[in-house]
Amino acid sequence: MGANPQAMVFEPIRTRRAFEEICDRIRGQLENGALKPGDKLPPERELARQLGVGRSALREALRSLEIAGIVRLQKGVKGGAFIREGDPSGMAQVVQDQLHLGSITVEELTEARVHLLDLVVRLACERATKSDLEALRKNIERTAEMTRANRYLERVECSREFYALLGAATHNQVLALLVEAVTEILMKFVRLRVAAGGKPQPRLVEKRTRIVELLKARDADRTAHAMRAHLQSVHGLLQEGLRLKQGSSQKA
Amino acid sequence: MGANPQAMVFEPIRTRRAFEEICDRIRGQLENGALKPGDKLPPERELARQLGVGRSALREALRSLEIAGIVRLQKGVKGGAFIREGDPSGMAQVVQDQLHLGSITVEELTEARVHLLDLVVRLACERATKSDLEALRKNIERTAEMTRANRYLERVECSREFYALLGAATHNQVLALLVEAVTEILMKFVRLRVAAGGKPQPRLVEKRTRIVELLKARDADRTAHAMRAHLQSVHGLLQEGLRLKQGSSQKA
DNA sequence: CCACTATAATTGGTCTGACCATTAATTGCA
DNA sequence: TGCAATTAATGGTCAGACCAATTATAGTGG
To answer: Whole-angstrom Cα distance, residue A130 to residue A134?
Structure first.
């Protein structure tokens, strides 16, 4: 065999499963515009009949699309499968899963975050609008309130939002998305630390205030420098906590 | 209302669905190390019995985990649900879905790619090993062969691999992953262009060769500059093609 | 003894039909 | 009118059956 000089790649023919075919059709209708965010798919029983498949196959397809962030399933009359607006938050789960599969490490994650945010603040220096800066200012204000009230878990939420706002200030939703994904995972570690009674990071509000001021002054180099210093101190705090946990279950 | 000063956030209690509970349990076993890549879950019927749920609920859970890239399902005796090694390629699908949902645009994607690769090549300049550079050299060699043989689809595959190798040369799997995700989507557009008979990009091999040479010389600034110029010319070619397609279905 | 083929056993994939749970509209009663 | 009970629509789950793919095993012929 193999006499044919053509590219005999022969993809392993994974027998096409029904739910995959269904997913592809719905994705196709998204690509060609037949389906748009807000649209509602027919009820499961009806759609299954139209597609000539059983309800179980259709449900696995809908479940897949739900996990992928494409549809939102809602129960009750007037419920159904609705095409979602863009909500890229699902990516954080994907990255986080890979973290637990050992494919990536926390060190790689924090390093990627440092570099990403270096890039992001430089772009934000060029593009941040007044409303972007105002949102950041309000966020820091709320962070200060939470700090004074010792509401540390809510302060973590403020932190997550702070980085999301920075991402938004680049006016590039892809970069914003990437920043949110890596931030979300780090925040999970921070929450663990807070729940365990770890000391909150000192001078957080002051450091963020300075970063936003530099941002407002459009001073990219100094902003990036301040951000990098801040992230590395965060990294240091987390490393402390991680060393403790890893000591107990470390083996190979 | 709101008399309670406590944080009355009251998350909307989405009635916990069975498959979600199952997913969380399996994810939990991943986190605490009870499950590791390569492990096999019990057969569906058996696992459903153990968990006290029906087979359909369990299957929706397994389907979700499969879409998330956590397990791989295999038929036949000796088949089953296997915990996957880290395979972060699923992220590309997530990003691509968001693209079709209109959440992000091709412009944002290409811009993010330019900035990401700027960062990546600078890191790669510091960290690329001999074997990284050797892999890049071999990749370019193969790209040249495909170019001479007019095997353009395979040349696209070489391109995808080229950027994956660049990502790998950073020795940070998170950054590598992000690069692969955005690259994979752009490649889809390139493949469309190739299939439509678009002219292949000229001097591709020469440009990549120069980039790798600069990389080998550890000249971060020049490498980044060459990369940026290259990516922007790619962007220009794609923009041509996109303008044609958008003209036909543009409305609002 | 070896190589090939037919059979069986295991396991995921799908179908059918039923019932449960939630939601919103409708009806009925005060 | 206003509120409570009923009803209808729809996703969520269960149960059991059968289909399809894959591997092990037995059988068969050389």
So the answer is: 6
Secondary structure E strands in A12-127: 71-74, 80-83
Closest protein residue to D15 (Cα–C1'):
B54
Decide if B83 contacts A100 (C-beta within 8 A).
Answer: no
Does A68 lie at the interface with B, CB-CB under 8 angstroms? Answer: yes
Instruction: Read off the pLDDT of residues A106-158 as tens digits, 9 standing for 90 and up.
Output: 889 999 999 999 999 999 999 999 999 999 999 999 999 999 999 999 999 99
More confident residue, B95 or A250: B95
On whether any CB of chain A is under 8 Å from the CB of B226, the answer is: no
pLDDT exceeds cutoff 70 at B11: no
Asked whether the beta carbons of residue A173 and residue B104 sit closer than 8 angstroms, the reply is: yes
In chain B, where are the structural domains located?
Answer: 18-83, 90-249
Give the pLDDT of residue B14.
Answer: 57
Residues 46-65 of B with CB under 7 A from strand D: 52-58, 60
d(CA A78, CA A43): 10
Tokens in use for A192? 């663990």
CATH code assigned to B18-83: 1.10.10.10
The CATH label, of 1.10.150.170, 3.90.1150.10, 3.30.1330.90, 1.20.120.530, for the domain at A90-249 is 1.20.120.530
